[in-house]
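Weekly modeling sync, notes
Attendees: S.R. (lead), two postdocs, one rotation student

Agenda item 3: backlog of single-chain predictions. S.R. asked that every request posted to the team notebook include the full sequence so nobody has to chase files. The rotation student volunteered to paste the first one in as an example of the format we agreed on. Action items at the bottom.

Example entry:
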Amino acid sequence: MRHTQHDLRSIALDVARHEAGHHVAGRILGLSMQGISIEILDLRGAHHGTSEIRPVETLSTTSEVVDFLGKRVQQLYAGVVARATRGSVGNRYEYSQITANTLRFR
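Predicted structure, as returned to the notebook:
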């Protein structure tokens, strides 16, 4: 099967959408986000992508740890949500409804 430039673009957009989902969700949730990077390794879809988060300096209480972990898990799920919805989850309310209905921490 011969792959085309269109295939490469499609793969890159899919990976970028996934990583952007992590990044946007992290910002909405108040996490300190850094950059996004993607690398397409081949036309079969192998890739490497990151959406970097700055480490939290201190978490002093159990409540702070639970709050941070809850936000972090939501941020991780957001990559899959962005990919599955093809980026159509467009505002804070819609995102909060998806995460609220997906995860319960307390």
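Discussion: group reviewed the output briefly. The helical segments are 5-28, 62-84, 92-102.
Action items: rotation student to repeat for the remaining queue; S.R. to check formatting next week.
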